[in-house]
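Class prep. Protein, please:
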Amino acid sequence: MRFVFRALSFLCLCLAVIVATIDSIESVSISQVAVTPLATTWAETSPATLVGAQSLVEAYAGKPVWQIISAWLLPQPAFAVLLLLALLLWMIGYRKPSPAGRFAA
């Protein structure tokens, strides 16, 4: 199970690097800082999943939860949200090494 969390963490980290690279290229091309919000990135790459996520959250958690998510999380920079998600998944999949070594009981 730890492997799954670590793999998802690596995937989120890769996506964060890709989004940050795209933002930096856009910033250089327009000569001002351009940070793409998560909602824009998500809607451009896969608009059907954004609508699907909205319907899932509204069905299982309620409409106020989606309003909080859309008001707070979706305007944040996409690379920051993905980096935070990667960190959380890595922390879930982390296991502290045994102080006695590999063959300790």
In short: The chain has two domains: 1-32+79-95, 37-76. Residues 1-32+79-95 form one domain.
